[in-house]
Amino acid sequence: MAETTTTEPSAARAELPPDRFLNRELSWLDFNARVLELAEDDTQPLLERMKFLAIFASNLDEFYMVRIAGLKRRQSTGLTVRSPDGLTVREQLARVTTRTQQLVHRHADCFAGDVRPLLEEAGIRIVHWDALSDADALRLREYFRDQIFPVLTPLAVDPAHPFPYISGLSLNLAVSVRDPDTGAPRFARLKVPNNVPRFVQVSLAESLATFLPLEDLIAAHLPALFPGLDVLDHHLFRVTRNADLEVEEDRDEDLLQALERELARRRFGPAVRLEVHETMDPRILDVLVSELEVSRTDVVTVPGLLDLAALMALYELDRPELKDEPFVPATHPRLSEGETPKSVFATLREGDVLVHHPYHSFATSVQRFIEQAAADPDVLAIKQTLYRTSGDSPIVNALIDAAEAGKQVVVLVEIKARFDEEANISWARELERAGCHVVYGLVGLKTHCKTALVVRREGGVIRRYCHIGTGNYNPKTARLYEDLGILTADPRVGADLTDLFNTLTGYSRQTAYRQLMVAPHGVRTGLVEKIRREARLATEGRPAGIRFKVNSLVDEKVIDALYDASCAGVPVELFIRGICTLRPGVPGLSENVRVRSIVGRFLEHSRVFSFGNAGEGDWWIGSADLMHRNLDRRVEVLLRVSDEGAQRQLQAMFDSAMAPDVRCWELGPDAQWTRREGRDHQAELVASVAEQVG
């Protein structure tokens, strides 16, 4: 099913240098380093800095669970496959290990040497057991006895007790004890429970928030867990396991059952990282390395607290003066009259609406569109894709209401959405119980597109209303992720979505659409052809230009086409949040290419593709990043933006993001990202939308 580019490559293609691609994994680590830079930035509010420390740690966990796990799986095959930048798997792992260890130490130093002391000055303390007052220690002993001790299970390791299974991302204590009668040493493992708060509140004073790490509380009470033995030492460690599912899809097997089987296996994936404190006893480390079957290169030493992702819990403290100014998304001005909501259907009959989240409210636009459709007696059918949604999802609730009201409701639930598999299986079953038609997409492909189609009878005429977006139907992440969506009654888009849903739910093999590009057959081919059109226009001396906004740019065919366009004189501006394996600014190759990244309060997540097209403008938005998985192994949708007002909005967004005086990071030909200070692009968008609706 993989897409291939049918257009013949240009003559310049054969002359492109072999070192033109950067390493994908190192580029991702560069992105996480940009997140860390925000934690190190003393102009950020203090709790925002702490939040970025937590995000960095959480990001790194997933990187190991998926990307490093994938490299190790390839290494185990014994094949000497090289990445596009020419590195073997062994060389990639070596470079990633070195870079990761550097970042982990920077991360720990930022917390211990900078953020933690400032938190203490602000009245937020994280202390150790020996710093507690007698009264606090007494109260926490009671808390330990009543709340923690009953759920702890010390596991001995000896000939009669094999080394226990260590679950992924759990905190554990390796405890050394000794029999006082025989002097024989013993080793035990104690899991720090993950169903109680990691940071135990110590102080009851309103002006002072003091917390004790749970592992410190447990360590202070180890004698109670090993009565009659001498506790010699204890060391904290944490294991990361391969969590990348490989579901063997068979047309004759129920995909739901196959996925549930693989989810059960995920818990027991091989270890890919062992985190230990830098003071870990070498003998204990030897035991862990041997029993977990990891190599020394898989060991990451941490000079401070392990698992700083847990700091996100402290971000919830009620300290508004230590956070960004509160932000309330605005209702798009065309979707309300003053404080009164308008009918989404009536609005769309007047023209398209481009919503820009989180600046425009998801609840009063996309969510309201689905809710009004569910409640409208003239709506006959709702068809929607769901990739990720929130725990208590108003979208799912509206779809259930629509089905119970007798409407035809078709929902494609992507149950293979990584780390949301169990939640999506639960949603699928709940939707089925309500009478929705639930399907799981196409064999061998993930359905990643964000699409909704509403069919409505209006005076004897059937009209179709559509939403196509760049982000998930998730009200919670819509307040944190920057995304775009088009709400439209354009009959061409309605016809396209009808055809697409017939492909997703039935046996249609349609690959050509009117206003859409659809992967895995049309996105790469369509974008490459448009890139080459710009190159031809530039060669002819006509206006040409390319602007892309994506999360990741990895696909070699797209990158080579961009290099060709640059050589033809096309100005190429790339706004990329995360991975970029294109090397910009190289004379004779990419001197006309500029790459910029913005990492800030909101996660830049939208995908936009703009082509100059001899002054006519050709704009597309959608769900696809420029990666192999998106272009070859997913159903992705890009929508042509036809509405001139929406095009102007996108133009203004790009102009702001690419302006020379905006705060950003820029990628150089040496693969180094350089930070530029300046105006806050996201803050200006907040102010701009507020002014529009004010």
From TrEMBL:
<dbReference type="Pfam" id="PF02503">
    <property type="entry name" value="PP_kinase"/>
</dbReference>
<dbReference type="GO" id="GO:0008976">
    <property type="term" value="F:polyphosphate kinase activity"/>
</dbReference>
<dbReference type="GO" id="GO:0009358">
    <property type="term" value="C:polyphosphate kinase complex"/>
</dbReference>
<feature type="active site" description="Phosphohistidine intermediate">
    <location>
        <position position="448"/>
    </location>
</feature>
<dbReference type="InterPro" id="IPR036832">
    <property type="entry name" value="PPK_N_dom_sf"/>
</dbReference>
<keyword id="KW-0460">Magnesium</keyword>
<dbReference type="Pfam" id="PF17941">
    <property type="entry name" value="PP_kinase_C_1"/>
</dbReference>
<feature type="domain" description="Polyphosphate kinase middle">
    <location>
        <begin position="139"/>
        <end position="314"/>
    </location>
</feature>
<dbReference type="Pfam" id="PF13090">
    <property type="entry name" value="PP_kinase_C"/>
</dbReference>
<keyword id="KW-0808">Transferase</keyword>
<keyword id="KW-0067">ATP-binding</keyword>
<keyword id="KW-0479">Metal-binding</keyword>
<feature type="binding site">
    <location>
        <position position="418"/>
    </location>
    <ligand>
        <name>Mg(2+)</name>
    </ligand>
</feature>
<feature type="domain" description="Polyphosphate kinase C-terminal">
    <location>
        <begin position="516"/>
        <end position="682"/>
    </location>
</feature>
<feature type="binding site">
    <location>
        <position position="388"/>
    </location>
    <ligand>
        <name>Mg(2+)</name>
    </ligand>
</feature>
<dbReference type="GO" id="GO:0006799">
    <property type="term" value="P:polyphosphate biosynthetic process"/>
</dbReference>
<dbReference type="InterPro" id="IPR025200">
    <property type="entry name" value="PPK_C_dom2"/>
</dbReference>
<dbReference type="Pfam" id="PF13089">
    <property type="entry name" value="PP_kinase_N"/>
</dbReference>
<protein>
    <recommendedName>
        <fullName>Polyphosphate kinase</fullName>
        <ecNumber>2.7.4.1</ecNumber>
    </recommendedName>
</protein>
<comment type="similarity">
    <text>Belongs to the polyphosphate kinase 1 (PPK1) family.</text>
</comment>
<feature type="binding site">
    <location>
        <position position="481"/>
    </location>
    <ligand>
        <name>ATP</name>
    </ligand>
</feature>
<comment type="function">
    <text>Catalyzes the reversible transfer of the terminal phosphate of ATP to form a long-chain polyphosphate (polyP).</text>
</comment>
<keyword id="KW-0547">Nucleotide-binding</keyword>
<feature type="domain" description="Polyphosphate kinase N-terminal">
    <location>
        <begin position="21"/>
        <end position="127"/>
    </location>
</feature>
<keyword id="KW-0418">Kinase</keyword>
<dbReference type="InterPro" id="IPR025198">
    <property type="entry name" value="PPK_N_dom"/>
</dbReference>
<dbReference type="InterPro" id="IPR003414">
    <property type="entry name" value="PP_kinase"/>
</dbReference>
<dbReference type="GO" id="GO:0005524">
    <property type="term" value="F:ATP binding"/>
</dbReference>
<dbReference type="InterPro" id="IPR036830">
    <property type="entry name" value="PP_kinase_middle_dom_sf"/>
</dbReference>
<keyword id="KW-0597">Phosphoprotein</keyword>
<feature type="domain" description="Polyphosphate kinase C-terminal">
    <location>
        <begin position="343"/>
        <end position="509"/>
    </location>
</feature>
<dbReference type="GO" id="GO:0046872">
    <property type="term" value="F:metal ion binding"/>
</dbReference>
<dbReference type="InterPro" id="IPR024953">
    <property type="entry name" value="PP_kinase_middle"/>
</dbReference>
<feature type="binding site">
    <location>
        <position position="59"/>
    </location>
    <ligand>
        <name>ATP</name>
    </ligand>
</feature>
<feature type="binding site">
    <location>
        <position position="577"/>
    </location>
    <ligand>
        <name>ATP</name>
    </ligand>
</feature>
<dbReference type="InterPro" id="IPR041108">
    <property type="entry name" value="PP_kinase_C_1"/>
</dbReference>
<feature type="binding site">
    <location>
        <position position="605"/>
    </location>
    <ligand>
        <name>ATP</name>
    </ligand>
</feature>
